[in-house]
């Protein structure tokens, strides 16, 4: 049961950190940094844990682009639960028995995976 609470705490922490990074990036550029994008004809929809951004592009010279960011609680809940279950599975195998040490190791592992995914996607976009 303790592993469940540790995994939940790590999951919430990582998701809130990602939401903050995405929000700050949206304020600067009107796009989410870590998001899945759906490109349609004159619009793009971005999905990220806790956020949904819709971009509608102008088709006429007198129109202007519209950007909208909204909170998406369903995607946040799904992301928290998914990361929590993965964390529970990892802690079931690799728990040290010390809650603070387990929290830090799981948190650092999640951050390492997140940044390595970001680096691979950046390199993928750069070279292909």
Helix content: 55-70%
Distance between the termini: 45 Å
Rg for CA atoms: 18 Å
What are the secondary-structure elements, in order, as H or E?
A: HEEEEHH
Estimate the strand proportion: 15-25%
> How much is the average pLDDT?
90
User: Based on DSSP secondary structure assignment, what is the total number of beta strands?
Assistant: 4
| Main structural class | alpha+beta
Shape verdict: elongated
Numbering strands along the chain, what is their spatial order in the largest sheet?
1-2-3-4
Number of helices: 3
Task: Report low-confidence residues grouped into runs of 5 or more.
Answer: none
Biggest sheet architecture: 4 strands, antiparallel
Overview of this protein structure:
- This protein is of the alpha+beta class.
- It is built from three helices and four strands.
- The chain has helices at 2-29, 73-94, 99-127, and strands at residues 36-39, 43-48, 50-56, 66-72.
- The chain has a four-stranded antiparallel β-sheet.
- A hairpin with a 1-residue loop joins strand 2 and strand 3.
- It is elongated, with a radius of gyration of 18 Å.
- It starts with a helix and ends with a helix.
- The model has no long low-confidence stretch (mean pLDDT 90).
């Amino acid at each position: 049961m303790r592993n469940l609470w540790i995994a939940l705490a790590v999951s919430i922490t990582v998701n809130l950190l990602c939401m903050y990074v995405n929000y700050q990036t949206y304020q600067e550029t009107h796009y989410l940094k870590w998001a899945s994008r759906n490109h349609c004809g004159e619009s793009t929809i971005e999905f990220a844990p806790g956020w949904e951004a819709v971009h509608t592009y102008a088709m006429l010279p007198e129109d202007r682009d519209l950007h909208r960011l909204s909170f998406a609680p369903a995607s946040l809940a799904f992301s928290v639960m998914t990361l929590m279950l993965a964390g529970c599975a990892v802690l079931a195998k690799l728990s040290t028995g010390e809650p603070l040490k387990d929290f830090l190791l799981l948190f650092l592992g999640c951050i390492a995976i997140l940044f390595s995914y970001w680096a691979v996607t950046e390199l993928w976009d750069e070279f292909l």
